[in-house]
Design goal:
The chain is an alpha+beta fold and 159 residues long. Helices cover 35% and strands 26% of the residues.
Length: 159
């Protein structure tokens, strides 16, 4: 169900992500951005092969990564795809050796259901610096919340 995208999926990932950019739920992603980060994406496909959901990981440091671009097509909502994508990207972050994974979102419930805890954005000066340069609205979050999940604890719990 969840897998790695291919180069044929670049336009579809960008389009799905950008459905939510006008509302400020995602940052606009160009096909070039998706292509450059293709190994960092995971997707959910429908039976017809169409991409119904996507998510990516963005590195900030060798120990810290951000979950970005979480998007589920409106026709596929309510099936638990968002949780599956979050768990898949947390697993990818763990396998890559990150200690922590953070995210910003309007939705508290989905991230808290996936073991994230609420954190202030000030805890991530790397994000503030990067997005002040890219898109100031990403750090002027008003209704958005910031979440963190410690992956080191996930590893020790699994041992």
């Amino acid at each position: 169900m969840i897998g790695r995208p291919t180069e044929r999926d670049i336009a579809a990932i960008a389009a799905l992500n950008n459905l939510f950019a006008p509302e400020g739920k995602t940052l606009h992603r160009s096909p070039q951005f998706v292509e450059e980060h293709l190994p960092d994406y995971r997707v959910i496909r429908g039976e017809d092969g169409r991409i119904l959901g996507c998510v990516a990981i963005d590195e900030y440091s060798p120990s810290l990564a951000e979950l970005v671009g979480l998007a589920v097509h409106p026709s596929a909502r309510g099936r638990g795809y968002g949780i599956l994508l979050i768990e898949e990207i947390a697993d990818l972050a763990r396998r890559r050796g990150y200690d922590e994974l953070f995210a910003t979102s309007f939705s508290e419930r989905i991230f808290e259901a996936c073991g994230f805890t609420k954190m202030t954005l000030d805890h991530f000066p790397e994000k503030v610096l990067r997005y002040t340069r890219i898109d100031r609205t990403e750090v002027e979050m008003a209704e958005k919340h910031c979440f963190i999940r410690t992956l080191r604890e996930d590893r020790s719990a699994a041992a």
